[in-house]
């Protein structure tokens, strides 16, 4: 059952990544591009967390005595995903700040209109 569950999670993560990538490619609106990037980030987090889960093992939190090391799940993938979430939120905030500055300068957040105004 575990293999089947992991496959569903992997397929779901790939599907989410594809949705985010298509949003990123097909839309000219900067806010939509930021949302696409966030969907792609979330799919990566889902993939790594689902791959790090092992049925029958416990979180590495000692409550009632110490188990053998094989009784615990590896905490490194979860720690890396927490770090990734912090980085994703920071990058999102930076992209939104740049979008605000572009809107103040050009009066639009559509990339094709900005390129026409710049003369590219």
**Mean pLDDT across all amino acids:** 87
Q: Give the uncertain stretches in residue-range form.
A: none
Second rung of CATH, namely the architecture: Orthogonal Bundle
Oligomer designation: single chain
Radius of gyration: 20 Å
Q: How many domains would you count in the coordinates?
A: 1
How many DSSP-defined strands?
A: 0
Distance between the termini: 55 Å
**Sequence of secondary-structure elements:** HHHH
Within the CATH hierarchy, at the fold level, what is the topology? Helix Hairpins
Q: Please give the share of residues in helix.
A: over 70%
Highest CATH level, the class: Mainly Alpha
Helix/sheet category: mainly alpha
Description of the molecule:
The chain has one domain (2-117): Helix Hairpins (Orthogonal Bundle). Helices cover 72% and strands 0% of the residues. It has four helices and no strands. It has helices spanning 2-26, 30-52, 76-106, 111-118. The radius of gyration is 20 Å and the shape is elongated. The model has no long low-confidence stretch (mean pLDDT 87).
List the helices and strands and how they pair.
Blueprint (H helix, E strand, L loop, with lengths): L1 H25 L3 H23 L23 H31 L4 H8 L2
Helix pairs in contact: 1-2, 2-3
Describe, in short, the structure shown.
About 70% of the residues lie in helices and about 0% in strands. The protein is an all-alpha fold and about 120 residues long.
Features:
single chain; 120 residues; mainly alpha; elongated
């Amino acid at each position: 059952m575990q293999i089947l569950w992991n496959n569903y999670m992997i397929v779901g993560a790939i599907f989410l990544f594809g949705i985010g990538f298509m949003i990123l490619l097909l839309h000219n609106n900067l806010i939509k591009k930021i949302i696409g990037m966030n969907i792609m980030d979330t799919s990566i987090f889902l993939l790594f967390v689902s791959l790090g889960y092992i049925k029958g093992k416990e979180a590495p939190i000692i409550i009632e005595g110490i188990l053998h090391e094989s009784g615990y799940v590896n905490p490194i993938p979860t720690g890396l995903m927490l770090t990734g979430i912090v980085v994703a939120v920071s990058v999102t905030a930076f992209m939104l700040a740049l979008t605000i500055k572009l809107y103040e300068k050009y009066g639009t957040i559509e990339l094709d209109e900005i390129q026409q105004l710049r003369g590219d």
